[in-house]
Amino acid sequence: MSRQEKIFHALKQDYHTHTMSNEQVNDMKKQIESAKKETRHPLRNLAAAAAAAAVILTILPNTSGSVAYAMSRIPILAQWVEVVTFRDYQYESSRNNADIRVPEIVPQIPKEDEKQAQTDSPAKQKVQKTADEINREIQSITDQLIREFKENLDPDGRQSMQVSSEVIATTEQYFTLKLNCYQGAGSGAEWNYFYTIHLETGERLQLKDLFTKDSDYITLISEEIKRQMKDQMAKDENIFYWVEYDDVPEWNFEAITEETQFYLNENEEVVICFNEGDVAPMYMGCVEFTIPKDVLSAVRQ
Questions:
Q1: pLDDT in tens, 163-218
Q2: Predicted pLDDT of residue 74
Q3: Strand partners, 189
Q4: Are the CB atoms for 274 and 294 separated by under 8 Å?
Q5: Residue 215 near residue 299, CB atoms below 8 Å
Q6: Which residues are 268's β-sheet partners?
Q7: Residue 185 to residue 93: CA distance in whole angstroms
Q8: Burial group, residue 41, by CB count within 10 angstroms (0-12, 13-18, 19+)
Q9: Distances (CA, A) of 102 to 55, 61, 82, 234, 262
Q10: DSSP string for residues in 227-291
Q11: For residues 86-104, b (16+ Cβ closer than 10 Å) or e, as one string?
């Protein structure tokens, strides 16, 4: 264990030695189920900007190694994007439980639009390529989590694992899938992944795609995040970020990178996302920072 890890362990000893009771596990599962129900409501006001192709989001069950297809579909984004149950992995015992619902993005053209789709094949191919890329990543992530869960099964131990997904902040141009992950074994850890598709081009959106070439958007965003961190800490003593933290300066947040996770909210503002422990102690959970449009107006595409 490195010196940094030892210090962090000491600072958060109470957090890491806390054991989840059965009541806490059940309460957490109820909250997750409630969140899933909220994601099933239709998202409104998506114009038919997805000229490239339709995208549907499916949630996959893998029970006893077989693939079970959903019996119902719930419209979510106009007429071309739907959320359906596709496959999941479930495990339940007195001390171990898993609820892993694996999403898969599937391009689909309604039959009445098949003729138009034939003339738009290059764009459709981009959608398919993007979907395949995202699906491979998600499958790799969830396969690893399932392996870890099975390897750690212990009648004397306790663990909990949940994976769910939701479509968030979809606009006329952008479709974002959020993958929510939670892993608990005594203490718990939560982290997320964000996947955004540009609906007009069918391509996966990267942070740099939002800004003019050679612009210093990284510094603009990073300085705004630091400002927000300091402002939040000044207003609430329970909020703490590693910014200008003299005790362990190597932990300090300095700047985002091109790979930092993000999405665009309903106002098309950039929202920067950090997982537990990235920029703050783990008790802070996953944190997000919305960057006002005026901060980036000079460099946005």
A1: 999 988 777 788 889 999 999 987 899 999 999 988 788 899 999 999 999 999 99
A2: 32
A3: 183
A4: no
A5: yes
A6: none
A7: 14
A8: exposed
A9: 16, 7, 15, 40, 21
A10: HHHHHHHHH-TT----SS-SSSGGG------TT-EEEE-TT--EEEEE-TTSSS-GGG-SEEEEE
A11: bbbbebeeeebbbbbbbbb
Tokens of residue 148, six digits:
């870890």
Nearest to 165 by CA among 199, 132, 138: 138
Q: pTM here?
A: 0.73
Quote the CA–CA distance of 259 and 207 in Å, as a whole number: 8
Residues with Cβ < 8 Å from 117, sequence gap 6 or more?
Answer: 53, 109, 124
H-type helices in the chain, by residue range? Answer: 3-11, 13-17, 22-38, 114-118, 121-151, 217-235, 293-296
Nearest to 266 by CA among 171, 195, 179, 176: 171
Under DSSP, the state recorded for 66 is E
